[in-house]
Design the sequence.
């Protein structure tokens, strides 16, 4: 056997082995203007990767193929489709489904329901570091809809040493950490918006921030069920946050007052209201002055109570098409706990290029 495992065999000896190239069949076709018969291209009668069966032998011989290049199946080696199935198994977390049977060693994976697509980047990199196998995904942390394409996996050769697939499986370590990807469904349905700013409270300027936030939330099925315009005064903003929580909303969003002017009290008010602040500031433009925190359930709360996110939205969220808020929102609505490192990781790609027209989320932002 050659180094590659490919070998020329007599067709009658090829049963059980894997074809290394397409076998094109040409059949008698129509006639040309002069009545001459034309050969008809039938396309591939047998595809590369096909496992030759006893029934195929007479067909192949009738096509004039007395010899074939095949991969001899060796013990412990897998056909590409079998290997693709095992690779797909590494990917099929919650809300991920194989789009069908493997074809030519490739399997597509789609979303079974709406939610935020989450990828374990480190383990994905570990799997892709194994030669001869690959998993490509769409970018993680974005919202997806049922049926959306999420990932594809394939093995590179026609037959592959089972040890290579086992190496990929070890890198994924699904038993310890679960599959490489999942779609976390949206679990939050209601939000409070606290629009800060004395100019809004007094009616000097029309509130143009709240409608923007409402539209962004609506895309994820979240309704604004509580709203207040407390002005800039720290105590008033703290009180509004307390009332919003008492109203039982799933998340609290404060707009404006996030920067460094003397009357920018929102971060202080969020802290004073008792939130655990995860980050004030994010390596993203627009949106550097974002604050994200949580009100953790206390012992008296129901045992399945979730932390309630509280977000301070800087002014840019109102007038920029895409900001850090759009990067964090899908995970927030899915109740995925965000940590400081999630924001730290946004730096590379965190600069919006301000394209005209804006194609977010189909762009390098994030
Ligand atoms: N000296 C510095 N100035 C600013 C900084 C900085 O780091 N140093 N950061 C800039 C960045 S970045 C942003 S983003 C904004 C942050 O803005 P704020 O969240 O503090 O927003 P405000 O100051 O409250 O408002 C900005 C602007 O928008 C108007 N506004 C606010 N709310 C509403 C509303 N509901 N409807 C309509 N208009 C609203 C407000 O009147 C102001 O004109 O800070 C930069 N500055
Ligand atoms: O950095 Mo501000 O929070 O972009 O727009």
Sequence:
């Amino acid at each position: 056997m050659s180094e590659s495992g490919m070998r020329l065999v007599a067709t009658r000896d090829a049963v059980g082995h894997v074809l290394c190239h397409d076998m094109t069949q040409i059949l008698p076709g129509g006639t040309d203007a002069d009545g001459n018969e034309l050969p008809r291209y039938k396309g591939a009668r047998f595809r590369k990767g096909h496992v030759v069966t006893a029934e195929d032998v007479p067909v192949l011989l009738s096509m004039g193929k007395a010899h074939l290049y095949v991969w001899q199946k060796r013990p412990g080696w897998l056909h590409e489709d079998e290997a693709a199935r095992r690779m797909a198994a590494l990917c099929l977390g919650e809300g991920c489904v194989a789009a069908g049977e493997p074809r030519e060693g490739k399997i597509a994976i789609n979303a079974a329901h709406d939610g935020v697509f989450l990828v374990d980047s480190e383990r994905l990199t570990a799997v892709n570091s194994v030669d001869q196998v690959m998993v490509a995904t769409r970018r993680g942390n974005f919202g997806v809809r049922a049926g959306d394409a999420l990932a594809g996996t394939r093995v590179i050769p026609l037959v592959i040493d089972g040890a290579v697939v086992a190496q990929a499986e070890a890198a994924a370590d699904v038993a310890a950490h679960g599959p490489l990807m999942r779609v976390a469904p949206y679990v939050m349905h209601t939000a409070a918006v606290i629009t800060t700013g004395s100019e809004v409270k007094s009616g000097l300027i029309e509130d143009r921030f709240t409608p923007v936030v409402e539209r962004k939330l609506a895309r994820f099925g979240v309704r604004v069920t509580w709203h207040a315009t407390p002005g800039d005064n720290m105590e008033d903003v703290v009180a509004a946050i307390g009332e919003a929580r008492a109203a039982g909303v799933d998340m609290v969003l404060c707009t404006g007052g996030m920067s460094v002017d003397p009357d920018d009290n929102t971060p202080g008010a969020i802290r004073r209201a008792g939130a655990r602040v995860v980050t004030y500031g994010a390596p993203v433009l627009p949106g550097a002055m974002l604050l994200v925190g949580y009100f953790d359930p206390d012992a008296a709360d129901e045992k399945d109570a979730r932390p309630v996110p509280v977000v301070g939205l800087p002014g840019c969220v109102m007038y920029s098409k895409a900001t850090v808020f759009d990067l964090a929102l899908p995970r927030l609505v899915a109740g995925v706990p965000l940590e400081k490192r999630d924001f730290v990781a946004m730096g590379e790609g965190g600069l919006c290029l301000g394209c005209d027209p804006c194609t977010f989320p189909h762009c390098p932002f994030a």
In short: Residues 6-71 form a domain with the Molybdopterin biosynthesis moea protein, domain 2 fold (CATH 3.90.105.10). The CA atoms of residues 133 and 155 lie 4 Å apart. The mean pLDDT is 93.
